[in-house]
Amino acid sequence: MSKYVFGVDIGGTTIKFGLFTEAGELVEKFVIDTDISDEGTKLLPSTAKAILDKLAEKSLTIADVAGVGVGVPGPVDDDGVVLIGVNINWPKPVAVKKVLSDLLGLPVNVTNDANIAALGEMWLGAAKGARNAIMYTLGTGVGGGIIVDGKVINGTNGAGGEIGHTVAIPDGGAQCGCGKTGCLETVTSATGIVRMTKEKLAESQAPSSLREIADVKAKDVFDAAKAGDELALEIVDRVGYYLGLNVANLTAVTDPEQVIFGGGVAYAGDILLDTVRKHFVKYAFASVHNTPFVVATLGNDAGIIGGAYLATN
Question: Model pTM?
Fold first, then answer.
């Protein structure tokens, strides 16, 4: 009898779950609120309870489950220990793998939430069939996942794949939430794009439709660029430069089959990808010039799908 797996995507507001067959067929999705009270000590027990309750509801037992794959917002080491979880109120290391495994009596694998989304896209999404991929998650911040030979790179300190905190501007860059300045996140996230746009509008007298928008969003910048707005096109080109240079550097290191772009900024589509590729080709090692760029396709399900993959790999 075929077994089942659970994919779990822990977020600061909700915890998303997916019950899958081992082949990746989704049986059911469900969600619970994230309980971060008491320094997050209730979070893992409530996660385990949700899984056990679902098994009871489906008349399944622990013996029917091959494993659980979990994505967590924060650096995760190879032992499944989350070193710090700011968004989930974990001020000190939490041994997620051991705690959940003990609570469930099941094998548990754990990785960073951006890494798990990359695994999902590699398994059943935009890069389906690939064994080597890089994923950029361009949202409020910039996350990333680097997959080599089907395995996500966590690194010694759980910081593997922290693409958003590679340096884009060595000197004089904007402050990043991580404490450094000039991180890629500061110039390619939705937040960074809005900041750069406001700076450009303030220092330039150039006409722009963006001046008519009281609260400019990153989407407004891309929409204006698509309509031919020159100031918006300058901003998009700047974003494409920083991303293209970064992709060129990382592809020279890992030589992936696909580069995946996810998150809200990626939904700008061709105007973003074409601009990134223009700059990428200028800086890329010749052997990787033709690396395909794709937009993520799994949306909010990427994490649970990646979790299902992680559960048995």
Answer: 0.87
